[in-house]
Structures are given as C-alpha cells and as structure tokens.
Amino acid sequence: MRSRLLPLSMMIAALAAGAAVPRAQRASGRLLVLNKEDANLAIVDLRSGNVLARVPVGEGPHELVTSTDGRLAFASNYGTGPAPGRTISMIDLATQKELRRIDVSPLSRPHGLAFADGQLYFTAEADKKVARYDPATNTIDWQFETGQATTHMVIATRDARTLFTSNIGGDSVSAIQRTAGGVWEQTVIAVGKGPEGIDLSPNGREVWSAHSRDGGISIIDVASKKVVQTIALGTRRSNRIRLTPDGKFALVSDLDAGELIVLDAAARKEITRIPLGKMPEGILMPPAAGVAYVAVNGDNFVAVVDLTTWQVTKKIVTGTGPDGMAWVP
Questions:
Q1: Which of 36, 112, 142, 265 is the 20 to 30 A CA-CA neighbour of 79?
Q2: Residue 92's domain spans which residues?
Q3: Residues in CB range of 27: below 8 A, 6 or more apart
C-alpha cells in the first residue's frame, strides 16, 4: 500500500538537499494563471497572494507561456467541446492588456506552447501539427505535421534546435530536430498509452513523459531519442509532469485521483502522494522559490506546495477552472 507520508529518511534527505532553497514565504514576482471557465488571465502578486488584474482572453484558454524577457504572455485559446478555438492571446504584462488575438486559422485547437529564440512554438492539436509564430512580423512562418494523433504539448531545448511533443492519440513522443541545413526531421518515439504531460530535465539530457491512460512514465534519452526506462507509477490519469529546477524530483498531477505524486528523479522511485482536491492540473515551479504551484481545477484554487516538507502551505483563489500557469519576476 502506498504511504501518503514522507518516510523519515527521505524527509531528512529532502531537507538537507533543500536547505539552500528559499522557503515559500520568500517567493516573489507575479504568478500568471489561466482560468478556463472565466476565459481570463489572472495576475497574482506572490507576496500577498492578491489578484492584481484579470485580463480577458479567448474561449477555453489552456496553456500559458511568457517571452524570454518577461514582457509578454501568450495564452492558447483551445475553445470548447463544440467550438474549436483558433486563436492565441498575446498579453502585455506591463499594461495588463491583450495586445493582439492571433488568428491561427486554418489551424485549430491551439494547445501546447513554448517560447524559444524570440519565437512562439505551438501545437495545433486537431491538425497533428506544430507551428511557429513570429511576434516581430505577426506571422506564422513555419508548420510541421507530426502525423501523430492529438499532438498536445510541446517543449523546446535551450538552443531551440529540437522540439518534443506529446501525442496523446498516437501513444508517442515526437522529437523534431532542425539539421545544419535548416531542414526539420522527426523521430517518433513509442511510449505508453496516452502520453500527455511532458518535461525536459534541467540538464537537457532526458525527457519525461507521463501517460494518462496506463499510469506509467517513460524516460527518454535526448541524445539517442530512445526510451531508457519506464516507471509503473499507477496513476489514474496523469495530467502534467514537471521536474524541480534542481532536477532532483519529478512531480506528477493525477487528475482523477486528486493527488500530486512526488518521485525521486535519480532513484526513479515514488516518495509521497499529496492529496490536493478535485482535478489538479497545471504545475509550475519558479526558480529558487522552493515551492510548486499546482492548479486545482475542480476546486478553483492554486495550491502552494513546499518542496522540502511536501506540505500545502497556502491556497490562492484566482478564478474558475485554473489550469495553465507562468511566472515573471
């Protein structure tokens, strides 16, 4: 039977490893939260926990990312069940206003987002594609068809030369790499059933993929583009996976179980399960903050989890149906 309590030995190790990490109360900056049901972006002051502003965006916003300089935020407006979304909102964080609602037609269901090398990469889930938007020219200047059903999330390496997508319906992860000649080539990597959450390790050597339909995690070696290990985590419906900024732990939100699962990344072993509430989804960990923010969609709050004690220290109410999040200093 899985224990919900952190074993004493693990607690001591975690405390020692996190001794140099600032505690939760020292977190500063602004937390950005998309509220799916309200169709807005909430801007939260982390010191006080107060919502500074709410910026209207498109229908059914799901994922959120900021530009490298922290001036802009981009929200993918996925749409509702009967009405596929076809826009991405570009928000000026200084004025707290939507600057532009980018029409991505004929692409639809924009979802996963990654900002790299001055450009925005996004998935068009209904079209099995990844595309790129250039804010400077206000154009979509590149598209790539994965051929994999439900291309959902996208992450980019630091040099923006390789993209990884999770393909839920294809039971695969795509590694899309730009060659020296500027041609993009794809390697399709078979993983478990329903890969949804995906993350790149801080050292850039591994991609972790959480399966929503078989409760497993695939660990992919970036260099070889092969699965090197599979962890039978036993989740009911994994939604997101994130590695801590130091790479020591992996956090998985289990949407149906209402839990956040913590793994020792090096040992590939589960440490604890933290009950959060109905439908935990997005996970965000600002650097040096010592906390994880988890959007508890079904209960309409963001849980603040201390990364040394694995306790929920605070709940922030941002709106109805929180999901995608980002952070700016």
A1: 142
A2: 8-328
A3: 46, 47, 286, 289, 290, 291
Query: 13: part of which helix (H) or strand (E)?
Result: helix 8-17
Side-chain half-sphere CA neighbours of 106 within 13 A: 2
Q: Where residue 45 sits, what CATH number does that domain have?
A: 2.130.10.10
> Coil, strand or helix: which one is 126?
helix
Please choose, from the candidates 176, 182, 134, 133, the residue with its C-alpha nearest in 3D space to the C-alpha of residue 151: 176
Structural tokens at position 70: 């922290």
Q: Summarize pLDDT for 263-288 with one digit per residue, the tens.
A: 999 999 999 999 999 999 999 999 98
Q: Which of 278, 275, 276, 271 is nearest to 308 (CA)?
A: 271
| Residue 38 neighbours by CB under 8 Å, 6+ apart | 54, 319, 320, 321
Rounded distance, CA 305 to CA 21, Å? 14
Closest-CA residue to 29 (of 88, 80, 70): 70
Residues 322 and 300 sit within 8 Å (Cβ to Cβ): yes
| In a domain? residue 3 | no
145 pLDDT higher than 70: yes
Q: Count the residues in the chain.
A: 329
Q: What total of structural domains would you count in the chain?
A: 1
Element spanning 294, H or E? strand 291-296
